[in-house]
Amino acid sequence: MDAVMNAVVNNALAEQRESRRPKGAMMRVRLKADGRIVEILPDGSERSPPRVSAPPRVSANSSSGEADAVYARGVRARTKLTQAEFAARIGVPIETVRNWEQGKRSPRGPARALLKVIDKAPQVAFAVLGDAKTST
Asked: Is 103:66 a contact under the CB 8 Å cutoff?
């Protein structure tokens, strides 16, 4: 009898977690260190958000080291800066930029976000980075 009751309670809890949000309600999400996005459920647990089919693309979110290298190299190339100039502008050692572009390391967390900003709005990003150096 207890097993049946536990099964009923577990099913009810599972259905509650799986129920759809009311239309217009916002989904709480978190960006994990490995680049995955997870939905935060009301009980605090996490799950992968529902999949939306999208064409595959090479981006800074790619988990492949080669794709990250291509992305980092492309961002720098679009700025028309050398590795040394780019590293100096973003405040990292030149070895870091070299490692990204050679696929030895992948930009993570803040560095990945910075590359995305530089890719979308390089003048703004470099202006802000330049201001940050002079204001300290």
From this structure: yes
Is residue 108 one of the residues assigned to a domain?
yes
Asked whether residue 74 is domain-assigned, the answer is yes
Task: Find tokens 């009810």 and name the residue.
Answer: 12
CA 109 – CA 88 distance, rounded (Å)? 19
- For residue 98, what are the domain limits? 65-134
pTM of the model: 0.51
Q: Give, for all 136 residues of the chain, the pLDDT tens digit.
A: 566 656 655 655 555 555 555 656 777 888 888 878 888 888 989 988 776 555 455 444 445 678 999 999 999 999 999 999 999 999 999 999 999 999 999 999 999 999 999 999 999 888 888 876 555 5
Classify 37 as helix, strand or coil. strand
Q: Which residues fall within 8 angstroms of residue 48, CB to CB, at 6 or more apart? A: 36, 38, 39
